[in-house]
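Marked as duplicate of an earlier ticket. Keeping the data here for the record.
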Amino acid sequence: MTERRAVVLLSGGLDSATALAMAKADGFVPYALSFRYGQRHSVELDRARTIARTAGVADHVIAEIDLRTFGGSALTADVDVPKHDQVDELDAGIPITYVPARNTIFLSFALGWAEVLGAQDIFIGVNALDYSGYPDCRPEYIAAFETMANLATRAGVERTKLTIHTPLIDLTKAEIIGQGVALGVDYGDTISCYDPDPSGLSCGHCDSCLLRRKGFLEAGMDDPTPYQPGAIA
């Protein structure tokens, strides 16, 4: 096998779309992996399909798991998504939109697929600057998972070390957007909202919407997101 394959976690959001574009720019043949995990809405999966198709990925798998079995998050249980008017109103602690162990679960699936593909690289669009405070987005978590991955798999024992790439981890949202635009990412195909309406319009007031709007404002670019009427002042 001469091609450099990489599994790219693709949620349908801004960050993962940028990570996919960066993987391609680095010369990898991307295999996109998304999840139907019992999240509040399926709009993000529609967006993930569009992004994957536009990027020309080698394959796009949507894995089926159901984290509603455990709940514990506003994204997987009957709990209201917190809404705010400004970014500085966001809670300092870990918000209720954190899904317990989600990135660990997602990376474990990616690790299994990478081993089957003979891929030595996984891309995940985590960010430790303009983000919602999730513990599984920190550099030390990614480093620990990478260590575990190379101990826990046949590929890690018999082949070259597996690497987890986090190209966005030290970037602001504005910097992420700038790099994505330079790589041709169409952010109109992405969605960041935790609580869109049934037609897919973003709420404009959840943590993710506010951080997205802040990023586009600081980047000096228009946010192509369609928001619900009255969501933007």
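See parent ticket for discussion. The chain has a mean pLDDT of 91.
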